[in-house]
Amino acid sequence: MKIKLQKYLIVTLLVLGVLPFTYAQVGINITDPNGGALLDVSSREKGVLIPRINITDLTTIAPISGLISFAEEMAAESLLVYNINDTTGRGFHYWDGTTWIPLGDKNLGKDDLTQSEEPRTYDMNGEDLNFTNGAFGINTPNPNGAIEATSTENYDAYTFTQDNSLTGEKDVFTIEDQDAGGGAQDHSSVLKVLKSGNINSGDNGFSLIELANTGSDPGANKYWISGRKIDESAVLWGVDITDNDFWSKGGLTLGITENTNGTYSSGNFRVNSNGYTGINNTNPLEALHISGTSETIRIESLNSTNNASNNGVDDAVVYVDSNGDLKIRPSLVQNSMPEDNLTTFIPASRDVTSSNGTLTQETLYTTSITLTQDALVEVVYQIGVNITDSSFNPITDGNPRQYGTALFIDTNLVGYTSEAYTSRPSGLTASSRILSGTFFLNGNGYAQLTGSPAGTTYDLSVIGFVAAGNGFGVNGEFGGNTGVDRFQIILHY
Predict the structure, then answer these.
(1) Rounded to 5 degrees, what are φ and ψ at 16?
(2) Organism's domain of life (predicted)?
(3) Residue 355, CA distances (Å) to 230, 359, 416, 423 in order
């Protein structure tokens, strides 16, 4: 049978060679070969066995023989064989003029793929890959970035897992922006995480970034930047952008010194989980604990520029008020004398006269004080008085005359002093002598007054008065003794 078939094939080829223009097509086991085929082989139980050769190098036409030049090798383009070499790739190969090309190879990575026209869409089981203007889109017809993906399914949108094969310093995920600056990239971000709508909506809110060192969700050790309303009882630290909160269950350490091998345990600023805060201290023992031999606290609202109670020369005393606020106040034991008057305290004498002895008074002096805090106010004064009758003659009738002063703060009497004077010489003659002239009154008074930071002002006044009985006149000449008359105000805080 084989011999017979070979004879038929030889005869057929001879006929084709001798009578090339007689037959347009050749049919084997078929009487009406297809008009579009030069050779039409028909069989319901047989196939065509393509030559099987061992190709050891896909870049040479060997082991094909009979081609003696490079031009002939180029002319053999489309030559079809079956490669039996497992190393170079078992299967059908065709010669493209320089290289053996596999047919139907499942390994797409063996050769470069070229797409010369855009756009292109590849449908893979209903999921589209789109290539447009150098951009790559997954389920996105017109990607706006180099890579843009859209998911419409109810599962994690993107998951990348690195197995346990990394050694040395290898990064699982790296984003690099090679922009050199200069303003061309103003207001842009290297990494942007965007949540449409409010981040704290829903039952428990959402996390923008969540980091966990376990495979569970929620992880036993979790870190996040989020707007979540609950912490899932597993958060080590987090940033809540909704409430501007930053928290850490194990405390917070910040520092400006170098760390060692990625482990940072000291730090210049430390907040423990109980809220105790240390500055230059890693083990704060109070709500605020500052360490160091020369470190202190500076509060600029208490300096001499911003606080009138700080004169910029003397050290000011700081107190704590009922609200726990720090205030500058004078020391607990502090005195001051805002007025010590020797020159303008009644520099010219003032007459207070009663022609019939009734009580008569006049205001001799007024002044004021302003208190910025509570104080015990003490007033001390001395004033000279010359007593005569109402006609300014010496008193010789033996009837007493009273004279005195009173101190008022606003309308409140806080000090009072008075004396009595009389004179009646026995056998009054031109040569009789009596005691007269200037007598001094010494007065004082105390008052506990309240002050305020804005200042509380009080008015002080000294009153001079005279009186006599039985209708006798009297005159009191107050003051006019410059350098001797004196008025002092002493404040006790």
Answers:
(1) -65, -35
(2) Bacteria
(3) 93, 10, 23, 18
Q: Residue 283: beta bridge partners?
A: none
Contact 386, 419 (CB under 8 A): no
Least confident segment among 179-193, 218-232, 304-318: 218-232
261 token code pair: 């091998």
In contact, 454 and 404? CB cutoff 8 Å: no
The 8-class DSSP code of residue 216 comes to S
Q: Distance between CA 101 and CA 185 in Å, rounded?
A: 47
Q: What is the mean pLDDT of residues 34-48?
A: 85
Question: What is the spatial distance between Cα 401 and Cα 466, in angstroms, rounded to a whole number?
Answer: 7
Which among 168, 481, 191 has a CA at the least distance from the CA of 344?
481
* Residues whose CB falls within 8 Å of the CB of residue 447, separated by 6 or more in sequence, listed in order: 376, 377, 409, 412, 414
Residue 200: which region, alpha, beta or left (left: phi > 0; alpha: psi -120 to 50)? alpha
- List the end-to-end C-alpha distance of the chain, in Å, as a whole number: 137
User: What 3-state DSSP class applies to 4?
Assistant: helix
What are the DSSP E strand ranges found in 96-186?
100-102, 120-124, 127-132, 135-138, 147-149
Q: Which of 125, 126, 146 is nearest to 135 (CA)?
A: 146
- Per-residue DSSP letter, 314: S
87 exposure class (CB count in 10 Å sphere: 0-12, 13-18, 19+):
exposed
Burial 318-327 (b: 16+ CB within 10 A, else e): eeeeeeeeeb
Those residues whose C-beta lies under 8 Å from the C-beta of residue 441, and which sit 6 or more positions away, are 382, 383, 384, 385, 403, 404, 405, 417, 418, 419
DSSP 300: G
Q: Distance between CA 452 and CA 369 in Å, rounded?
A: 13
Q: How confident is the model at residue 311 (pLDDT cuts 50, 70, 90)?
A: confident
In the chain, the domains with their CATH numbers are 2-110 (no CATH), 114-147 (no CATH), 207-249 (no CATH), 336-424+435-492 (2.60.120)
Name the pairing type of β-strands 456-468 and 360-371. antiparallel
Amino acid at 351: D
- Integer Rg of the chain from CA: 58
CB count within 10 Å of CB 272 equals 18
Bridge partners, residue 92, by sequence: 82
* Rounded CA separation 238/250 (Å): 12
Query: What would the two tokens of residue 444 be?
Result: 């004082």
Residue 88 contacts residue 55 (beta carbons within 8 Å): yes
